[in-house]
């Protein structure tokens, strides 16, 4: 009884701290608050000729009603929400990272060549500011292999696995009349859509589609970024279109090939994008039953996915004539994804991103197709003073499919049973200046049946308060 009261006290205390922070950061309280006196020490941008250095450092403090201990390798450090955290079973509070944005550093290149042509490129890597390690989701899985759920630190699969350049690494040429052609490691089209149309901006802390990469990766989180890919995009008036192809290889998430198409447009306050993608022989990594250094289990799938996402911005005015006014943006999206057994199964020795060895490979997980549905909606209110308020709702579901071990079902008896998962979240952000902002928010997640099969909990409430530096 005493221990439970202590936990509740810690939870209520953090809620009180968050509430106090929101009051202090409210427009009414900000006039006399110290943050308004902070001067911006950074230049407008760090550029030399056509090269610009950029980066983000994002740290926070979090309380979770059901969480797992901090993991040095995992890029958020913790798992915000429940899906992907089967071992979460008790209250957790502590420092975490990358709540709003992935902490990273990189360079952008845009150097004119003449006649309207330019060389373009982008090279960046994600890091963990609290452990000073490169972001490595695969290490979080490998290090927890052979560990019981109750003893595990936070661990989940991801597209950043300790590579020297675990974000983008591409270069190419661009022309306003002919489009842009690039080659290398690049965002899948759906990752770009998530960043553009998620009301929470693909935040790890407050967005289901930011924290859980199956949406950005079209069924497989490692495939949110395509290695060895060629991408062409073209703008024509208010419309744009693109095509993308990935050559499968070892040390990548895609071992056969993949292709994607994107069409979209903007009209007044409306913006819409549709994406279709086919990914073949994709790695879905997991923990091994017993620990092996730098090794993982893997389920191999072929993924087919289609999505449509959009937003509409209302300019509400409220400022002086010709001065910027308040903005309200409403967001929404839907994605349909089918996972099936690979036409080209993996046998023998194989590796995935980061060079991790696939020590146990399952090519027969789906005797019938696994179907995923995602729908989300939300809104964001922005003020010229630097204040913004955002709310989001996410619903994720799967059908019941026949696995290589179990038949169809609709309970929590097995992970192949049908299931549902919901997340709602609310966040307040205040931009102190162009480079520094502070944020605080709350989220609630709940799952049912197959999506939480084997989990120690089926719901989680959490609070996150943090600070982000951008340059």
From TrEMBL:
InterPro entries from the UniProt entry: Gram-neg_bact_OMP (IPR050298), Gram_neg_porin_domain (IPR033900), Porin_dom_sf (IPR023614)
Principal localisation: membrane
Protein topology in the membrane: Multi-pass membrane protein
Keyword Ion transport: yes
GO cellular component, as recorded: cell outer membrane; pore complex
Coiled coil: none
Alphabetical keyword list: Cell outer membrane, Ion transport, Membrane, Porin, Signal, Transmembrane, Transmembrane beta strand, Transport
Any Gene Ontology biological process: monoatomic ion transport
Domain Porin: 18-449
Subunit: Homotrimer.
Annotated compartments: Cell outer membrane
PANTHER family documented for this protein: MAJOR OUTER MEMBRANE PROTEIN P.IA, PROTEIN YDDL-RELATED
Domain of life: Bacteria
Protein name from the UniProt record: Porin
UniProt-recorded Gene Ontology molecular function terms: porin activity
First and last residue of the signal peptide: 1-30
Database matches in Pfam families: Porin_4
């Amino acid at each position: 009884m005493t221990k439970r009261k202590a936990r509740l006290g810690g939870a209520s205390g953090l809620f009180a701290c968050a509430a106090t922070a929101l009051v202090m950061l409210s427009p009414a309280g900000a006039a006399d608050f110290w943050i308004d006196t902070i001067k911006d020490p950074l230049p407008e941008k760090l550029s030399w000729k056509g090269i610009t250095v950029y980066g983000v450092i994002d740290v926070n403090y979090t309380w979770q009603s059901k969480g797992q201990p901090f993991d040095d390798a995992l890029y958020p450090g913790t798992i915000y929400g429940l899906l992907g955290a089967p071992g979460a079973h008790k209250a957790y509070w502590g420092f975490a990272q990358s709540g709003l944005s992935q902490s990273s550093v990189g360079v952008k290149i845009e150097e004119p060549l003449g006649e309207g042509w330019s060389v373009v490129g982008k090279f960046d890597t994600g890091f963990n500011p609290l452990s000073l390690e490169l972001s490595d989701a695969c290490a979080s899985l490998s290090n927890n292999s052979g560990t019981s759920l109750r003893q595990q630190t936070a661990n989940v699969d991801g597209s950043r696995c300790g590579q020297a350049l675990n974000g983008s690494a591409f270069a190419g040429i661009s022309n306003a009349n002919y489009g842009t052609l690039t080659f290398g490691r690049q965002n899948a089209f759906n990752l770009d859509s998530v960043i553009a149309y998620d009301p929470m901006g693909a935040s790890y802390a407050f967005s289901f589609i930011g924290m859980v990469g199956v949406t950005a990766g079209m069924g497989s989180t490692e495939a949110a970024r395509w290695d060895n890919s060629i991408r062409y995009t073209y703008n024509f008036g208010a419309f744009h279109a693109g095509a993308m192809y990935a050559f499968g290889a070892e040390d990548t998430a895609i071992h056969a090939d993949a292709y994607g198409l994107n069409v979209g447009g903007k009209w007044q306050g409306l913006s819409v994008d549709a994406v279709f993608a086919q990914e073949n022989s994709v790695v879905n990594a997991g923990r091994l039953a017993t620990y092996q250094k730098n090794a993982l289990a893997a389920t191999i799938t072929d993924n087919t996915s289609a999505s449509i996402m959009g937003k509409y911005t209302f300019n509400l005015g409220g400022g002086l004539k010709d001065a910027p006014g308040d903005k309200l943006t409403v967001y929404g999206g839907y994605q349909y994804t089918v996972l099936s057994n690979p036409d080209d199964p993996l046998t023998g020795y194989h590796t995935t991103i980061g060079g991790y060895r696939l020590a146990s490979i399952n090519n027969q997980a789906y005797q019938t197709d696994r179907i995923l549905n995602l729908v989300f909606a939300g809104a964001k209110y922005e003020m010229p003073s630097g204040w913004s308020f955002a709310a989001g709702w996410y619903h994720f579901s799967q059908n019941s499919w026949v696995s290589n071990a179990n038949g169809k079902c609709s309970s929590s008896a097995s992970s192949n049973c049908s299931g549902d998962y919901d997340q709602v979240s609310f966040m307040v952000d205040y931009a102190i200046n162009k480079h520094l902002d502070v944020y605080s928010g709350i989220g609630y997640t709940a799952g049912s049946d197959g999506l939480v099969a084997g989990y120690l909990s089926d719901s989680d409430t959490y609070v996150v308060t943090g600070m982000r530096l951008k340059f």
